[in-house]
């Protein structure tokens, strides 16, 4: 259990090799140079009253409450803004200071509503605390003068209120929005007595630029900015440290509770990935965990047209096992398989893949990473020798040039996006490679030097053209390449990349990017100092996804931008545990730790540990499972926490494959789209009910802890163990930590990981091989040599995608996600986040809209060779002419009805980012949507019936 109130040191910690010794209230204290007197006092165990200072923000010096006396100096300087000096003698408690502080507090309190007993912040209010600390006993000025006590409340934000009557204008919120979040949504409007906090130009929070990260709410020392959940429930009485279950940033949170009711999620200051910051999803969008749509009891049915029947866990397991065994008896061992989920913990994923391999006796196991970052795994292991990003997030603080390709960090990875923006505001240069003008290209105090607005599908051409410039203009870092890379492979690559067909000029007509822009960006990347690459699904979800990953790795090696802070190749992982689900052996060709199933020694190790014979042949990937379902050889599927109907491309192909299966087992929180095709449904658990670990995009293994007991009465891994046992392979773990111990024994990169260690040290970054507490793994990879020894340059020939625009389908559709929602939206759609994004929309360039007579807000049909849907158009100059964009957060949109089955040549990762489409005005839903609506009515009826029965 963790304290609700953490110590606030008043100002941020400073790092310096120079130490300064001073004396505070007679106590000697030594601190790093640059430390404030306030923080030094705190380090010495002396608390100085404060209101405008907090240790997550730079000092501001406005409230004057922290005044101190310093021998030899005149006046009473603010201790928060005064840095320490050698030999300084400070007094924090004198009569003069006490009088001064009381005077300050009198002024604040004279303009403050005195409703402490009924205030939501009662017990968590710094103003209240300071009144006590300074010994305030009366207010000489009275309460009747001019004041702000009648100021209006702004309740427009779904998650927090702004009660201006309680504002002390300390500016902490404004500074949090600027310094921590980087949105600059708040200002102090007016001067002196008339000054007040204003979102935007006197707008409501909801209408302003605010992105609801919650940083201002956290920084506010009074009840002015307060979570609505706290107003509703009151103050928490205990907290549990856990990890956000949304994106791959992996933010640590204090789940603050009353009993087993979560009343607030507060980003944890000591969280390795987020250091006390959050985004709207992790901070506020956790209500889905207790949503009424959750299915609480196992259900079975004979046919997918039958109604569901609630049964006991044991009956559901026996039923599933019997049907799986019957399928295997008739069609062979390889006729069944499973899919693991990147939303589940490492331990849950591990047991499912073990169940498939050991109990089902097949390697037909794949994961949702197939459809997002599988090219990262392939590309980085080919070039560097390991399937993971090279840096920790902190590394970006040392970058001089940041190259963002096919990623939208401020929406997809918001907390890291804020960190990146901070570095950019401090002077780092930015290059963005993206067809869409993402926020980073132009946001407050951030402007990209170059935005290479390429045609979707030409990533390899652009990255090759950058490399061509570097090679032909003599910008290769020869000493790095000669010392660290395979010389033969480099020579081949150098000759290839120098060919004219890879030049920016030759490729300009394909990529749409002016050659001079490519050349200038290449020069900046190669010569601008520490240069780091961050990329996302805009790189991987292409027919040349793996080639682009390798082209990026080539760039980093050619310029020596690998193996130290500030540089590197960084895949921004989509889901919370994408890295972990891949690490845990979810791919059909790899056992945990990325070791090939055909490797006899590795297989033997697992066979000995698991007591079974394992198949040496790789199994089916997800798309192969669908194809084999169509040809009748694949007949049974276990799906863990994944909605493949909504998330995988070419929906019609996926649903017809599922319809043809004899047995589909789904484990999830909700009756998702895939459950419509299931015969057995096992209720899953939310992250608040889980015990285990997630691994984030920087390979950081974070603990996930139970904030509340399982609402369905079972831990999620119980199902895999029980099903394996019923299939004839006994599997049982007394505790979740036993699973991690087994993972550590069998996975070299996890050897030093255990729950005990994580509980002591917080988090570790794999590879972590030592058992000692000071081995917290590797923050930066490939420092001395690459994981594979010598770095390998790979030839990356640009091959245009098969998906071509035609007269019938003249536009290119590219897809992505937005801040408020997460993936298929199963969680965020069940929260107030829908206020920001109630439907998926189609962003279309003004020129393309005008040609089609489309006005902003019109309903339009979006059609490809695969299918059609209807959605609302939003005219936006973020899109270049010829390219349209949408998201896939709402199932009724059916964005993946449109996408094709084209996929990455190496990994089968779908080409979500390039689909030839046509857009036309329309006033009716597509045929697919009509069908969907019919099924949805039925699904809701079943869910409602189940909920009633469960209650
Ligand atoms: S809203 Fe809170 S943080 Fe912002 S100025 Fe007012 S009291 Fe300070
Ligand atoms: S919630 Fe975040 S973005 Fe909105 S005003 Fe507060 S700090 Fe700024
Ligand atoms: S969604 Fe991502 S950035 Fe937001 S709080 Fe969760 S882990 Fe952090
Ligand atoms: S805390 Fe130092 S001036 Fe406010």
UniProtKB/TrEMBL annotation:
Record flagged with keyword Oxidoreductase: yes
Pfam family, any one: Molybdopterin
Record-annotated 4Fe-4S His(Cys)3-ligated-type domain positions: 96-135
Domain 4Fe-4S ferredoxin-type, first and last residues per copy: 158-189, 202-230
Domain 4Fe-4S Mo/W bis-MGD-type positions: 237-293
Domain of life the protein comes from: Bacteria
SMART domains: Molybdop_Fe4S4, NADH-G_4Fe-4S_3
Domain 2Fe-2S ferredoxin-type per the UniProt entry, residue ranges: 18-96
Gene3D superfamilies hit by this protein: 2.40.40.20, 3.10.20.740, 3.30.70.20, 3.40.50.740, ADC-like domains (2.20.25.90), Dimethylsulfoxide Reductase, domain 2 (3.40.228.10)
InterPro entries: 2Fe-2S_ferredoxin-like_sf, 2Fe-2S_ferredoxin-type, 4Fe4S_Fe-S-bd, 4Fe4S_Fe_S_CS, Asp_de-COase-like_dom_sf, Formate_Dh-H_N, Formate_DH_asu, MoPterin_dinucl-bd_dom
Protein's UniProt keywords contain Glycosyltransferase: no
PROSITE patterns named among the record's database cross-references: 2FE2S_FER_2, 4FE4S_FER_1, 4FE4S_FER_2, 4FE4S_HC3, 4FE4S_MOW_BIS_MGD
Keywords: 2Fe-2S, 4Fe-4S, Iron, Iron-sulfur, Metal-binding, Oxidoreductase, Repeat
Family: In the C-terminal section; belongs to the prokaryotic molybdopterin-containing oxidoreductase family.
PANTHER family reported for this sequence: FORMATE DEHYDROGENASE H, RESPIRATORY NITRATE REDUCTASE
Name of the protein described by the UniProt record: Formate dehydrogenase subunit alpha
Organism: Azospirillum melinis
Lineage: Bacteria, Pseudomonadati, Pseudomonadota, Alphaproteobacteria, Rhodospirillales
């Amino acid at each position: 259990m963790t304290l609700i109130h953490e110590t606030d040191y008043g100002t941020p910690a400073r790092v310096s090799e120079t130490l300064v010794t001073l004396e505070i209230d007679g106590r000697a204290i030594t601190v790093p140079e640059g430390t404030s007197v306030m923080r030094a006092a705190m380090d010495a165990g002396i608390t100085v009253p404060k209101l405008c200072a907090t240790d997550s923000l730079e000092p501001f010096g406005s409230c004057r409450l922290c005044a101190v006396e310093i021998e030899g100096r005149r006046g009473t300087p603010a201790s928060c803004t005064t840095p320490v000096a050698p030999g300084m003698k400070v007094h924090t408690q004198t009569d003069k200071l006490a009088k001064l502080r009381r005077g300050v507090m009198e002024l604040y309190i004279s303009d403050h509503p005195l409703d402490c007993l009924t205030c939501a912040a009662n017990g968590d209010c710094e103003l209240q605390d300071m009144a006590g600390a300074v010994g305030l006993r009366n207010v000489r000025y009275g309460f009747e003068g001019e004041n702000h006590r009648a100021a209006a409340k702004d309740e427009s934000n779904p998650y927090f209120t702004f009660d201006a009557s309680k504002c002390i204008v300390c500016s902490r919120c404004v500074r949090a929005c600027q310094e921590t979040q980087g949105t600059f949504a708040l200002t102090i409007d007016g001067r002196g007595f008339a000054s007040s906090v204003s979102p935007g130009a006197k707008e409501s929070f909801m209408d302003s630029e605010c992105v609801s990260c919650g940083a201002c709410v956290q920084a506010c020392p009074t009840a002015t900015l307060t979570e609505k959940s706290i107003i509703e429930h009151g103050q928490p009485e205990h907290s549990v440290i856990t990890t956000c279950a949304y994106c791959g940033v992996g933010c640590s949170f204090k789940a603050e509770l009353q009993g087993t009711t979560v009343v607030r999620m507060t980003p944890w200051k000591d969280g390795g990935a987020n250091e006390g910051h959050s985004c709207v999803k992790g901070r506020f969008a956790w209500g889905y965990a207790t949503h009424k749509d959750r299915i609480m009891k196992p259900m079975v049915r004979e046919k997918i047209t039958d109604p569901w029947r609630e049964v006991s866990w044991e009956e559901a397991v026996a039923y599933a096992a019997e049907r799986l065994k019957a399928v295997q008896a008739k069609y062979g061992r390889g006729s069944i398989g499973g899919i693991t989920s990147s939303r589940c913990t490492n331990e849950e994923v591990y047991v499912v893949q073990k169940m498939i391999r050991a109990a089902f006796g097949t390697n037909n196991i794949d994961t949702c990473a197939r459809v997002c970052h599988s090219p990262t795994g392939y590309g980085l292991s080919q070039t560097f020798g390991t399937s993971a990003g090279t840096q920790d997030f902190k590394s970006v603080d040392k970058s001089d040039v940041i190259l963002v390709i096919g990623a939208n960090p401020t929406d997809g990875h918001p907390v890291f996006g804020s960190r990146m923006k901070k570095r950019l505001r401090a002077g780092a240069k930015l290059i963005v490679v993206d067809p869409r003008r993402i926020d980073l290209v132009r946001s407050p105090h951030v402007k990209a030097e170059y935005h290479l607005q390429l045609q979707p599908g030409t990533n390899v051409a652009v990255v090759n053209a950058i490399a061509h410039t570097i090679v032909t203009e003599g910008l290769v870092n020869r000493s790095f390449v000669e010392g660290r890379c395979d010389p033969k492979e480099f020579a081949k690559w150098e000759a290839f990349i120098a060919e004219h067909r890879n030049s920016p000029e030759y490729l300009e007509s394909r990529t749409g990017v002016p050659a001079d822009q490519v050349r200038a960006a290449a020069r900046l990347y190669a010569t601008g100092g520490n240069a780091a690459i961050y990329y996302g699904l805009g790189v991987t979800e292409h027919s040349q996804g793996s080639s682009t990953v390798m082209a990026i790795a080539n760039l980093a090696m050619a310029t020596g931008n690998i193996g130290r802070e500030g540089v590197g190749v960084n895949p921004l992982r989509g889901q919370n545990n994408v890295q972990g689900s891949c690490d845990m052996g979810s791919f059909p060709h790899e056992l945990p730790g990325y070791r090939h199933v055909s490797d006899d020694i590795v297989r033997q190790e697992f066979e000995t540990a698991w007591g079974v014979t394992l198949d040496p042949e790789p199994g089916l990937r997800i798309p192969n499972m669908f194809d084999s379902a169509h040809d009748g050889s694949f007949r049974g599927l276990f799906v863990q926490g994944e909605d493949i109907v909504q998330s995988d491309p070419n929906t019609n192909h996926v649903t017809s494959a599922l319809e043809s299966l004899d047995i589909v087992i789904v484990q999830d929180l909700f009756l998702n789209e895939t459950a419509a095709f299931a015969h057995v449904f096992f209720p899953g658990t939310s992250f608040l009910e889980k015990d285990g670990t997630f691994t984030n995009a920087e390979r950081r293994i974070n603990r996930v802890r139970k904030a509340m007991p399982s609402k369905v009465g079972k831990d999620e891994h119980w199902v895999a163990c029980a099903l394996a046992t019923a299939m004839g392979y006994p599997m049982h773990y007394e505790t979740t930590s036993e699973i991690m111990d087994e993972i550590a024994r069998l996975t070299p990169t996890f050897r030093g990981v255990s729950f005990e260690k994580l509980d002591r040290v917080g988090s570790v970054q794999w590879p972590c091989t030592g058992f000692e507490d000071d081995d917290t793994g590797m923050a930066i990879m490939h420092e001395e040599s690459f994981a594979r020894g010598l770095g390998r340059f790979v030839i990356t020939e640009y091959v245009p995608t098969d998906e071509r625009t035609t007269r019938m389908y003249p536009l290119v559709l590219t897809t992505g996600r937005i801040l408020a929602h997460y993936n298929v939206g199963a969680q965020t759609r069940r929260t107030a986040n829908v206020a920001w994004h109630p439907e998926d929309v189609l962003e279309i360039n003004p020129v393309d809209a005008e040609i089609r007579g489309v006005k902003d807000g019109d309903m339009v049909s979006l059609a490809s060779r695969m299918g059609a849907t209807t959605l609302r158009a939003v005219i936006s100059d973020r899109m270049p002419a010829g390219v349209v964009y949408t998201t896939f957060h709402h199932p009724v949109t059916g964005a993946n009805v449109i996408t094709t089955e084209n996929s990455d040549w190496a990994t089968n990762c779908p080409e979500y980012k390039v689909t030839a489409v046509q857009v036309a005005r329309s006033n009716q839903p597509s045929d697919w949507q009509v069908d969907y609506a019919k099924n949805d009515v039925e699904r809701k009826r079943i869910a409602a019936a189940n909920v009633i029965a469960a209650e």
